Every structure is written in structure tokens, then in C-alpha cells.
């Protein structure tokens, strides 16, 4: 995570399929790997294929440019856009978190616990904090208490707290559960609604599992929508270690199926993107 907190969820917190979310998916999936600029016309056309109206697409490109994630250069009557250093960090940080969802990390039985109580006047900070903690895989079992088995995210969490200047309101520690009070399983049940997470995966499989796009535009649109949904998973699935998951957990199997679909459409979608993008200046 970069010093701008919370960078990944800043990029991904908007509604799936929104103009902003779709643009950031295009930047992360196509522009970042190519490390080449992209014409406004290419972005507008790709967003149109994904269901975004031209006016909304152009406004969103301008706003994302104003945010400092991309920078534009004019060439005659046309404008091309390049990712800034900040934009690259946001995309790379988000990609790393999404990729970590498929890892079956071992768990040593310890929790990272953050207890925080904010005054009513800290509404904006509370909203930003809760989004950042959700992105980091925290659950909220009790009022003011956040927990995650991903103890390796302690430094990331510290940067969030310090950036928001909330250290005076925070108590944080790493440790295992005691022999009294809630068990680890009960803590999970209180902190996350895993049945709702599983239902979300079911919905994604229903949406994409039977999709058979044929044309270049259809493949690109389907691929972009799937990647967009995939990028939002850290907000929904805490990626709990296997010992903390319910028996017969179907989320991992569905995630593997979705990842296979993404790989299946990847080459055709990228080929169609390159054909649309045409020749761009080398910067």
C-alpha cells in the first residue's frame, strides 16, 4: 500500500460497472501491462462497449486525469493518456491484493485486532477507516472492534491509522484467542457473513459461467466486466485461511472457475484492445 491511504480501495470502492470503475479496470488490465499511452477515443470506445455512454466516459476520463492517476498530452486535435507514478502504484497495489485472494496461506492461530472508538465528529475519517479495513480483510465482530487473521498486514494497517491521525483512539495488538470467550469459529461467524459471500460467488458464476461471447466487442465487454467484478472481491471476501472456513466452502471452487474464464478470454480481449488502440506515441 502506498502512502496515499487507502490507495487500492480509493480505486475500487465505486460501484461495479460504474464509469469510474470501468475506466480503472481498462487502465489496470490493458494500459498498465502495455506501458504505453492510450488515446481518448480508444478509452471512450472501450467504455461504450462495456455499456458506458460517451458523455459519461469523457467526463470520467477528465476527472481521473484531474485526480492525478493519468496525465494527458495533446497531439494535434487528439489527446493521449499515460498512467502517472501514482496511478501505477494504485493499480499495482490493488492487483497484488486481488492476486492474494487465491493463495491458501497457512494460519498460525493469531489475529490482528484493532479496537477503535471515534468521536461523532470524525464521520469522514470513520468512513475512510472502515473502507480501508474492509479492503485489508478485517471483519467487525463487535462495535469498535476489527479483526483479521492476516497478521502480515499489520504495517499496512498502521499506515492507515497514522495517515488518518487516529492513533490516539486506537488500541491494536496481535495474538491468539483465549480459552474463554468466543472461539475462533464464533469470532468468524460474528465478523463476516460468509453465506452472503458465497451467494455473491454464486451470482458471479450465474452471470459469467454460461457466457459464450463470439465477436471481438462481446469478448472485450465480457472480459472487462469479469475483471471489474474480480477486482472488487477483496471488499466482499476476506480470504480466510482454510481452518476458519465452513465445511464444504464453495467460494474457492467458484473463484477458480472464474479465474479460468478470465484466462480463457484474456488473449482474445487483449488482441481486440490492441486492434482498437492502433498506433500510439512512444513516451
UniProtKB/TrEMBL annotation:
On the tree of life, the source organism's domain of life is Bacteria
Q: Where is the Transcriptional repressor PaaX-like N-terminal domain?
A: 18-87
Which terms does the UniProt entry file under GO BP? DNA-templated transcription
Please list the residue ranges annotated as the Transcriptional repressor PaaX-like C-terminal domain: 192-274
Q: Which InterPro entries does UniProt cross-reference here? A: PaaX-like_central, PaaX-like_N, PaaX_C, PaaX_trns_reg, WH-like_DNA-bd_sf
Instruction: Please list the residue ranges annotated as the Transcriptional repressor PaaX-like central Cas2-like domain.
Output: 105-176
Spell out the Pfam families in the cross-references. PaaX, PaaX_C, PaaX_M
PANTHER family named among the record's database cross-references: PHENYLACETIC ACID REGULATOR-RELATED TRANSCRIPTIONAL REPRESSOR, TRANSCRIPTIONAL REPRESSOR PAAX
Protein name, UniProt field: Transcriptional repressor PaaX
Instruction: Give the species.
Output: Pandoraea nosoerga
Amino acid at each position: 500500500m502506498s502512502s496515499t491511504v487507502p490507495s487500492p480501495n480509493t480505486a475500487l470502492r465505486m460501484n461495479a460497472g460504474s464509469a469510474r470503475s470501468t475506466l480503472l479496470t481498462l487502465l489496470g488490465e490493458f494500459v498498465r501491462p502495455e506501458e504505453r499511452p492510450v488515446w481518448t477515443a480508444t478509452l471512450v470506445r472501450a467504455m461504450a462497449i462495456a455499456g458506458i455512454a460517451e458523455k459519461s466516459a469523457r467526463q470520467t476520463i477528465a476527472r481521473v486525469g484531474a485526480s492525478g492517476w493519468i496525465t494527458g498530452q495533446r497531439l494535434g486535435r487528439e489527446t493521449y493518456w499515460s498512467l502517472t507514478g501514482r496511478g501505477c502504484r494504485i493499480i499495482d497495489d490493488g492487483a497484488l491484493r486481488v492476486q492474494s485472494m487465491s493463495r491458501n496461506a497457512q494460519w498460525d492461530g493469531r489475529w490482528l485486532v484493532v479496537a477503535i472508538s471515534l468521536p461523532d465528529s470524525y464521520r469522514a475519517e470513520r468512513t475512510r477507516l472502515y473502507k480501508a479495513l474492509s479492503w485489508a480483510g478485517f471483519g467487525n465482530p463487535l462495535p469498535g472492534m476489527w479483526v483479521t487473521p492476516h497478521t502480515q498486514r499489520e504495517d499496512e494497517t498502521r499506515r492507515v491509522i497514522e495517515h488518518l491521525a487516529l492513533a490516539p483512539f486506537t488500541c491494536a495488538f496481535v495474538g491468539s484467542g483465549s480459552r474463554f470467550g468466543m472461539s475462533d469459529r464464533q469470532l468468524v461467524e460474528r465478523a463476516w457473513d460468509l453465506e452472503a459471500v458465497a451467494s455473491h460467488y454464486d451470482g458471479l458464476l450465474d452471470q459469467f459461467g454460461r457466457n459464450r461471447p463470439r465477436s471481438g466487442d462481446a469478448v472485450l465487454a465480457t472480459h472487462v466486466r469479469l475483471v471489474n467484478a474480480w477486482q472488487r472481491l477483496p471488499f466482499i471476501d476476506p480470504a480466510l485461511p482454510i481452518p476458519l472456513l465452513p465445511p464444504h466452502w464453495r467460494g474457492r471452487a467458484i473463484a477458480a472457475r472464474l479465474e479460468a474464464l478470465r484466462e480463457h478470454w484474456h488473449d482474445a480481449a487483449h488482441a481486440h484492445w490492441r486492434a482498437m488502440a492502433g498506433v500510439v506515441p512512444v513516451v
